[in-house]
């Protein structure tokens, strides 16, 4: 194996701690060509699609990538902003805010970067930016509250694989999940309560999570259980009775059975029952994206009202809420214990002098 060229180590240089936020990803533009490149990378991940590679290659390249990019690009165009992709815009804000909040908690040198599992900025590029700033310890924070092999694990795969090619690999820590973190649950509840204070309460609250194939549950993926725990804790925080809320799963793809109940089916059923008002929240996403702004806020509304339902409200994700960033800061600080040490200037100078002295004697 050939290792990447390393910067020559300079004695006396203070080491930094890197914090890398990782989210799913986004195309570079709401165009068929950009979406095609994004979908090809996303759907080629064996963690995402567990179908024998030769069979899936034919389906992906022969059918999906010839049909879906144009349709998906049209959907992305409905949520695209002047600043760009909503997911990237919110993640950039979260990164900047976390940098600021952490600087209030510690004087130790650190750097916060973000990356996308698919698309740009890539995880390898972000890791190299951290290394260039002498980050010898890196905490990876996948921004998925509930762990799944197809989200958190695949992000870690890329991180670990990149370290395999480094001669001087940094120390590494990862956060597996935060589905039951008190600060995260509290921020979710505050977000919903603030919306209800302005608009009143609905007849039903639907907590919609990203869906996964049913077989992932049977194979040991804890995602389904963690989604239910998040919902239970959130309902308790909101003081909801069992008949006032429900959990569902969205984004079903293909003909295989996925985790149930399906969001679309639930909304249509509630519409048929002439439910007067439904509010929908997506606790599995910490930043608004195509799946929340288009699939839920637009398609979900149409499904519900076309079936006979009344008022429909989508409650935005946590995005850059102050309480959420505080919770994220707490989460990061808890996982950086022992790493945030102030550099000793005298010790660093002694290290540099010893190195120079040793070089002089050679």
What would you note in describing this structure?
The chain has 362 residues and is an alpha/beta fold. The chain has two domains: 16-179 and 322-342, Rossmann fold (3-Layer(aba) Sandwich), CATH 3.40.50; 182-315, Rossmann fold. Helix content is 50%, strand content 15%. The chain is built from 13 helices and eight strands. It has helices at 32-43, 53-79, 86-105, 123-132, 149-163, 182-199, 214-218, 223-238, 263-272, 290-293, 295-306, 322-335, 345-361, and strands at 16-26, 110-119, 135-142, 171-174, 204-210, 245-250, 277-281, 311-315. Strands 2-1-3-4 form a four-stranded parallel beta sheet, sandwiched between helices. The protein has a four-stranded parallel beta sheet with strand order 6-5-7-8, sandwiched between helices. α5 links the parallel β3 and β4. α3 packs across α12 and α6 packs antiparallel against α12. It is globular and about 85 Å long. 36% of the residues are buried. One of its GO terms (biological process) is heme biosynthetic process. Its EC number is 4.98.1.1. Belongs to the ferrochelatase family.
């Amino acid at each position: 194996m050939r290792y990447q060229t390393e910067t020559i180590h300079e004695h006396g240089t203070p080491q930094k701690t890197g914090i890398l936020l990782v989210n799913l990803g986004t195309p570079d533009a709401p165009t068929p060509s950009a979406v095609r490149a994004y979908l090809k990378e996303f759907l080629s991940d064996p963690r995402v699609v567990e179908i024998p590679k030769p069979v899936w290659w034919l389906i992906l390249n022969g059918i999906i990538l010839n049909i879906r990019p144009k349709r998906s690009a049209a959907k992305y165009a409905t949520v695209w902003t002047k600043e760009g992709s909503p997911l990237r815009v919110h993640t950039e804000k979260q990164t900047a805010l976390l940098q600021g909040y952490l600087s209030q908690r510690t004087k130790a040198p650190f750097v916060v970067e973000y990356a996308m599992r698919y698309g740009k900025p890539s995880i390898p590029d972000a890791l190299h930016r951290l290394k260039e700033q002498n980050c010898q310890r890196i905490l990876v924070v996948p921004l998925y509250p509930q762990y799944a092999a197809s989200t958190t694990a695949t992000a870690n795969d890329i991180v670990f694989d990149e370290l395999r090619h480094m001669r001087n690999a940094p120390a590494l820590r990862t956060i597996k999940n935060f589905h039951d973190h008190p600060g995260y649950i509290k921020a979710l509840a505050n977000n919903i309560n603030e919306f209800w204070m302005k608009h009143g309460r609905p007849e039903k609250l639907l907590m919609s999570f990203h869906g996964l194939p049913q077989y992932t549950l049977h194979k040991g993926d804890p995602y389904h259980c963690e989604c239910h725990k998040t919902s239970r804790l959130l309902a308790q925080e909101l003081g909801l009775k069992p008949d006032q809320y429900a959990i569902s799963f969205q984004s079903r793809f293909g003909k295989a059975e996925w985790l149930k109940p399906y969001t679309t089916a639930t909304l249509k059923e509630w519409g048929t029952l002439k439910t007067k008002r439904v509010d929908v929240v997506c606790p599995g996403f910490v930043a608004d994206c195509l799946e929340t702004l288009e699939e839920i806020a637009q398609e979900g509304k149409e499904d519900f009202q076309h079936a006979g339902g009344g008022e429909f409200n989508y409650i935005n994700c946590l995005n850059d809420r102050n309480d959420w960033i505080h919770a994220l800061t707490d989460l990061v600080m808890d996982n950086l214990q022992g790493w945030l040490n102030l550099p000793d200037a005298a010790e660093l100078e002694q290290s540099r002098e010893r190195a120079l002295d040793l070089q002089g004697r050679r």
